[in-house]
């Protein structure tokens, strides 16, 4: 059984997994809407640094995700998800 954020309980070792953000859903939406990353960046007023973070699957501020959702008229769960990071 995998529990997130736990280490050792009652002398039983529990495997610890970390999570990372995955934005594959966002890129699929852009394809469906025939948009480029540059179009999204300009429409949402995002910096190139933020776009790089999104492209690399790094975390970004929730406000940024909400700006993207507002522009694409979708929910946060439509553009990203937390996935188990490979060890």
How many structurally independent domains?
1
CATH topology: 434 Repressor (Amino-terminal Domain)
C-alpha geometry: elongated
In the CATH hierarchy, what is the class? Mainly Alpha
Distance between the termini: 17 Å
Rg on CA atoms, Å:
16 Å
Overall pLDDT, averaged? 87
Share in β-strands: 5-15%
* Sequence of strands across the biggest β-sheet: 1-2
Number of discrete helical segments = 5
Please give the number of β-strands: 4
Please identify which CATH superfamily we are dealing with. lambda repressor-like DNA-binding domains
Element string (H = helix, E = strand) = EEEHHHHHE
Structure described in brief:
By secondary structure, the protein is an alpha+beta fold. The chain has one domain: 434 Repressor (Amino-terminal Domain) (Orthogonal Bundle), CATH 1.10.260.40. It has helices spanning 24-32, 37-44, 48-55, 62-72, 76-79, and strands at 8-9, 12-13, 19-22, 81-84.
Structure in words:
The chain has helices at residues 24-32, 37-44, 48-55, 62-72, 76-79; strands spanning 8-9, 12-13, 19-22, 81-84. With 87 residues, it is an alpha+beta fold. It has one domain: 434 Repressor (Amino-terminal Domain) (Orthogonal Bundle). The radius of gyration is 16 Å and the shape is elongated. The model has no long low-confidence stretch (mean pLDDT 87).
